[in-house]
Amino acid sequence: MTTHYAKNLIALAITSSFSIAAMANDNGSTDNDTVMEEISVVAKKLSHANHVIDPSMVKQQSSVSSVLAVMDNLPGISINEGDAFGGDDWSTSITMRGFSIDGNQQQLGMTIDGIPNGGSNYGGGAKANRFLDSENMTTIEVSQGTSDISSASLEALGGTFNFVSSDPALNAKTKFAYTNGDHDASRYFIRHDTGQIFDNTYAYMSYSSTSTSRWVGEGSNGGMERQHAEAKFITELSNLTITGRISYDDADEDNYNSVSIEQFEQTPDWDQLTWNWTGTPHFDQMFAEGWSTLRENTLAYVKFDYQLSERLSFQITPYYHKNEGRGDWIPPYLIAIDDNGDAVLNENGSLKSYGFTDSNGTPLTKIAGCTEELTWPWASGAELNPACYNDSAIPVMSYRHTHYEKDRFGLTANIDWSIGINDIQFGLWAESNERNESRDWHKVVDARVYHHFDNTPYWTQYSNEFQTDTFKLYLQDTLDFGDLSLNIGVQKYLVDIEKTNKFTGNVTSKVNSDSDTLFSTGAIYQLNDSIALFAGYSENFSAIKDGVLERDASTLEDIAPETAENIDLGLRYNNADISFSATYYTIDFDNRITFIAPGSDTGGIDYNIGTNGSYLNVGGIESDGFELSLSYRFNNEWSIYSSYTNNDSRYIGDAPGFENGDKVIDSVDDMFVLSTDYSNGNFRVGASGKYTGERGAADSYTTFDMNAGYFINFLGNAISSVDIAFVVTNITDESYLSTGSGNGNTFFIGAPRTASMTLTATF
């Protein structure tokens, strides 16, 4: 065992000694290896609101579930996913203090072991669930409102999430887990820890395979399949620690659809997608298996941590991320193409299309005088109604692919130096990000039969390359005056974005998205051994996204990066049994960038939107509120956790879709969480409930979850332990709308009652 690595683990175990008794039955184990892996202690003096997940929050989620769901009970945070397992990125959203990650907005930063995730948007981004299995996660560090100054993110307007992967175990062991659940949920997981190798190295490798079906409908109603692998090592060389990690994720997801309030009230368990192929394109455009998200993500880093002296250390972490994938839709027509392969335009400049042909493939026009329009799933012209054509007419469809590719190279580096009463942190982040996006249209071979499509596209709508170069510098000094600690920091972003049209090879637009010099300051006063008061101020920044350059009508010289000024005032109370925090915050968010869609006469999805529309700065948002959280351990068996959030977020300035003073779309006024956990010997059980207030037109709702488990330790046998875990979410089968689609008009339906069971064996 190398000395430095062993000392780190021993220190962690000592620091956590008061918590081990209460959490010894987390996965039922009290052996040293497991305790050291699962208990996380964050001993930072922070002058802003921050939280880490409690081990009980992990037990409340099935291992099939996304790692994002673990954060849902923390104050200020609302996690919404299309199903209980997080099997669809399209319908996933995160809101915190009026800021959002959804299909339209990326206002919260996300990192994995401090490595930037490359953006959280649907088109080419990747949230933490693409990089980390729940069994390999130690904790999640959440900075509400005020982001950590060292955070490497271009989206951290309203705070950051840092997902921390577990370290290799000291001793060799193998863990195998199998999960089975509702909606055809099935998952296999295996992880092998090598123990000590080469006298100075510890490592593990893991693999999981997951599949589920959409909970809406039956038969060919779509679902999710995911293959995921991770490996990590730690090597100690005198004063140098080398940590390397790589993850690979291959996900194929069929989406959920958002619905209007009226549609939900009429059929609260149906998202308007279908699962029977009819042969009529107008209806089959809603076939669930044709709404798909395909993504592959590989993220690797190597961290070099050099301890120059007891007071001076240096870390540098180069990393690489490759993202590629596709988004699918099935428009109920073909685009008319001329002999040069270009799309034909109507007199009004819109794309010309047709929905029926004769047996030779020649486009047909509807019978003269036929005005009968289709009315489901939305109003549609007579041109798509089979009744307006002869019986010999053949319906046609497209399979539309939007392709995403991204290659990111970068590094983070920082120096920590303690001198006198000063703890100085200086660092940088540099990254080169090349993203490609293109859209092509494929002909469905025979729309009367199924959605099988010709692999060769009949038309490529656009193909663009975006180059984003980022450089960030930051400096922070924390002064320790005993009971009083003060910090002051400064950071600066230099961001350049360039768009190249790959059809012509020409650079068509570029924008400089540098930040101003951003200041932060804060104070912590230790009133006594249990109570600390804190106050913090920070200027946060979100660079212009390359997606702004996608839209040909965007006037780049008039667009400024988004900024936010955050103030936190709070109190923390901690003793052996109680942990309590209270925070009041106020936020001014300026230069909000909004997408203005072009006019559309489709009455539904505008499949042809392409690169039309524009972005512009429209006012901002003002938020204020308070957050409370409490953890209380009655004794070695019982504990409770509770959090309450009150938030008021309103738009400043008028824009399409809202007026000055309107409530922010999808922001939640009130959230309340209460959970309890009991463990006795090898048995454990827990229950939790969460109230989520109104969000615009969507009503409030309350859901309840429960979990139970039993652990058996076989000392001295080939199988060292077995654990059985049972999880049920939404026990009362509450029918509710979970989150909006970002436009304020439609919402995704909340997942119904869902149960799963996991059997884990350790060898």
Question: Quick summary of this structure?
Answer:
The protein is mostly beta strands and 763 residues long.
Describe what you observe in this structure:
- It contains seven helices and 39 strands.
- It has a 22-stranded antiparallel beta barrel. A five-stranded mixed β-sheet has the order 1-7-8-5-6, with no helix packed on it. It has a three-stranded antiparallel β-sheet with strand order 2-3-4, with no helix packed on it.
- It is mainly beta and 763 residues long.
- The model is unreliable at 1-43 (pLDDT under 50).
Layout of helices and strands:
Layout: H1 3-15, H2 17-23, H3 32-38, E1 50-52, H4 55-59, E2 77-80, E3 93-96, E4 99-101, E5 109-112, E6 115-116, E7 137-144, E8 159-165, E9 173-181, E10 185-197, E11 201-213, E12 223-237, E13 240-254, H5 261-266, H6 281-284, E14 292-307, E15 312-329, E16 334-335, E17 353-354, E18 356-357, E19 394-395, E20 398-419, E21 422-443, E22 459-480, E23 484-501, E24 506-512, E25 518-526, E26 531-542, H7 547-550, E27 562-574, E28 578-590, E29 593-596, E30 614-617, E31 620-633, E32 638-652, E33 670-680, E34 683-692, E35 701-713, E36 721-729, E37 737-740, E38 747-749, E39 754-762
Parallel strand pairs: 5-8
Antiparallel strand pairs: 1-7, 2-3, 3-4, 5-6, 7-8, 9-10, 9-39, 10-11, 11-12, 12-13, 13-14, 14-15, 15-20, 16-17, 18-19, 20-21, 21-22, 22-23, 23-24, 23-25, 25-26, 26-27, 27-28, 28-31, 29-30, 31-32, 32-33, 33-34, 34-35, 35-36, 36-39, 37-38
Characteristics of this structure?
single chain, 763 residues, mainly beta, Maltoporin, Chain A, 7 helices, disordered N terminus
